[in-house]
Write a structure and sequence with these properties.
2% strand, single chain
Length: 294
């Protein structure tokens, strides 16, 4: 398959000959983002998480305040209105007036939309923080914020398309949605770092080396699944042990704390997964992401 190809990079991968390509554009064993194996990927991701944790913590702490300010009252109101409707149905009185329930649902949906927008901004900014750390630039939250926010409209647009694609996969059956979700997991990194790229690029990177892609993405899926199960258990315990409004508030705050922790750990692992996937497809090293001289 690789016959006639030249230039073996530091990971042992063969790429088409590129006359004049500087050696720095092929990932070397010490590359901050590109790793030769699974252990290297994990170590690089955690090392970068440690480098950016302070500005990332500040960013996600800022994001979580308006998120909780919106979702706590919205979730509390919706839960109360849902309980009213269920109680009326149990008593055989038919549907009660639905104005309050519909208002609560609209408020909850609005809260989720705003929370999603804030999460999108935080993800793009964290990606820029990780890249700054990897390329030896100052890890500056204001700089990362300026660079990340510019990509938010593109992230929203591609995110909507990815959602529609996922919906189509769900209607097909379980296996396609797993495949689509795995392939587009690096979409936030692709859109943030590569102008004009989107869903098609994600699938190209995912298929370049399925072993590498599946190992990284499955780990991220696993972390998210275990965390979601633990969070769900905490929510059930809180709502059962602390009934009423306090239980709903406690469960919503627990969700916010999970989002905060996930924002610190997962983006660096996602950026390094993207780097590994890209390096298996084309000449790539961290040098590609370094700012161009002015």
């Amino acid at each position: 398959m690789n016959q006639g190809w030249a230039n073996v990079d530091g990971n042992g991968h063969h790429w088409p000959g590129q006359p004049g390509m500087p050696p720095a554009f092929y990932g070397m064993p010490a590359d901050p983002l590109v790793s030769p194996d699974y252990a290297g990927w994990w170590q690089r991701g955690i090392a970068l998480a440690k480098q950016v944790w302070k500005p990332s913590l500040i960013l996600h702490a800022i994001v979580i305040v308006p998120t909780l300010a919106l979702t706590v009252p919205a979730n509390t109101m919706f839960t109360a209105e849902s309980a009213t409707v269920q109680e009326a149905l149990r008593n055989g009185g038919g549907l009660p007036p639905m104005n309050g329930y519909l208002r609560a649902m609209a408020l909850l949906m609005a809260a989720f939309l705003v929370s999603g927008l804030l999460s999108t901004i935080a993800t793009a900014v964290t990606v820029r923080l990780v890249v700054a750390a990897a390329t030896g630039q100052p890890v500056s939250l204001p700089t990362a914020l300026r660079e990340g926010v510019r990509r938010v409209p593109a992230l929203i647009g591609w995110g909507i398309l990815a959602g529609l694609l996922a919906l189509g996969a769900v209607l097909a059956c379980i296996l396609p949605i797993v495949y689509v979700a795995a392939a587009v997991m690096v979409l936030p990194v692709v859109v943030t770092l590569e102008r004009g790229s989107g869903i098609g690029r994600c699938f190209s990177l995912f298929h370049a080396d399925l072993g590498t892609s599946v190992a990284r993405i499955a780990t991220l899926f696993g972390i998210g699944t275990v965390a979601a199960l633990a969070l769900g258990l905490v929510g059930i315990v809180l709502e059962a042990g602390i009934s009423g409004t306090a239980g709903v508030v406690g469960s919503t705050v627990a969700n916010g704390m999970y989002a905060l922790a996930a924002g610190l750990v997962l983006p660096p692992l996602l950026v390094t997964a993207y780097a590994d996937m890209r390096s298996r497809r084309e000449p790539f090293s961290t040098a590609y992401l370094a700012p161009r001289p002015v």
